[in-house]
Amino acid sequence: MQAVNRSRFIRRALLCVGSLAAMSATLGTGVAHAQSAQQGEIVIPDDVKIFGNDNPNVRRATAVVNGDVITGTDVDQRLALIVAANQGKIDEEEMKRLRLQVLRNLIDETLQIQEAKAADIEVSQAEVDQSYARVASQNFGQNTGAMDAYLKRVGSSADSLKRQIRGELSWQRLLQRNVQPFINVSDDEVNEMLERMKAMKGTAEYRLGEIYLSAVPEARQQVYENATKIVQQLRQGGSFVAYARQYSEATTAAVGGDLGWVRLAQLPNELSAVARDMEPGQLVGPIEVPGGFDILYLIDKRQVLTADPRDAVLALKQISLPFPKGISEAEAGKRAEAFATAMKAAKGCGDVDKVASGLGAQVVTNDQVKARDLPGQVQSAVLQLSPGETLPPFGSLDEGVRILMLCGRDDPQVNDGPSFEQLQAQLEDDRINKRAQTYLRDLRRDAVIEYN
């Protein structure tokens, strides 16, 4: 597999809640899941009567999965990560539902680790520690000690996160060995897709986040209510990435629900109709789709094979002038207006430092600013500037007043779209994910699970 294919596969397949069993006979993988079980219709009478007082929805926080124990501590520590991601803003009812979801996730994770082990796939402790250190690097400046302390402070542990890492790596390698080699995308298919993309030049492409919850017909109302509560939590400031990782049953769960860049034609009709009218930052759902419900979040939007002005690299100078402590809002407004007037005397970026020095202002230069990284209201305005022009002053009573001057702009090149290899990798990923979706269902079906 080419390097680009391998890296893309690893990124997309971290938590592919798998589907090898459905192919064991044809792939020769040795997976011991029988495929001969007859598929019959489950009949539930309308006037169903429950015998006894047992509530199947009430589960204690411990379980034994094929002999491996999941403890209440395991659930509590994994749950603590979700609570921390939402700044603790979770009510009691939601917490109960989260606990059940975490238990289900841990059961799935245990099944994945067991299946990889049965296939003689091992993940060393050194590899787990390396991935853990990478997470620490991204969030705590390469300080694993700070990461350990944070996890302990929020009620979790390094062991809990490392177990999740082990599960993801084990599952990824199992899919790499037993699924990927049997996926084939022909050159003709790739070329046909490339031609189709060229024909669609200028049409919209959407970068979407998704949270997918499956639902059998008799549980649709309950799943819908659960999805509605997730949407409410997200609108109250919950982390979409955190919720996607813990709740979503789609294979994109491992990457926080990120679908990547897609076109409307690639989406189910129910989702394309909704995504068409969404704006970046908008959350919509739950949306009923075949097999369950989807929650969509539009991360960004762009035009196919068209240069996006927001990808321009800007050279900017920021001129800052502090306010005296205790200044009133009215006085701050006057000073900001006077500051802006004085800065108009600067003849381009070459003259800014001299003028700013005379005003007692500080100048910061950055010639590698991506327009899309700027706040929305600043982004659109700065893209309208010519070199040497400035934005209106902005700031606060505490931070003082600031002015941005555009010194230069490197416009993006026309986007030629994915290469042949990149598109082939994407199509392979899609097929891997589709086959992967039935694997975990088979593992669940055959598992011996005892709730304590």
Summarize the structure.
By secondary structure, the protein is α+β, with helices and mostly antiparallel strands. It has helices at residues 3-12, 24-27, 72-85, 92-118, 125-140, 144-153, 158-178, 187-199, 220-235, 240-247, 269-275, 329-343, 352-359, 376-382, 420-436, 439-446, and strands spanning 63-65, 68-70, 204-214, 258-262, 283-289, 292-303, 313-321, 362-370, 394-396, 400-410, 449-451.
Kindly describe this structure.
- With 452 residues, the protein is of the alpha+beta class.
- The chain folds into three domains: 3-27 and 58-184 and 427-451, Triger factor/SurA peptide-binding fold, CATH 1.10.4030.10; 203-303, Chitinase A, domain 3; 309-410, Roll (Chitinase A, domain 3), CATH 3.10.50.40.
- It contains 16 helices and eleven strands.
- It has helices at 3-12, 24-27, 72-85, 92-118, 125-140, 144-153, 158-178, 187-199, 220-235, 240-247, 269-275, 329-343, 352-359, 376-382, 420-436, 439-446; strands at 63-65, 68-70, 204-214, 258-262, 283-289, 292-303, 313-321, 362-370, 394-396, 400-410, 449-451.
- The strands form three sheets. It has a four-stranded antiparallel beta sheet.
- A hairpin with a 3-residue loop joins strand 9 (394-396) and strand 10.
- Helix 1 runs parallel beside helix 15, helix 3 (72-85) packs across helix 4 and helix 4 crosses helix 7.
- The protein is globular.
- It starts with a helix and ends with a strand.
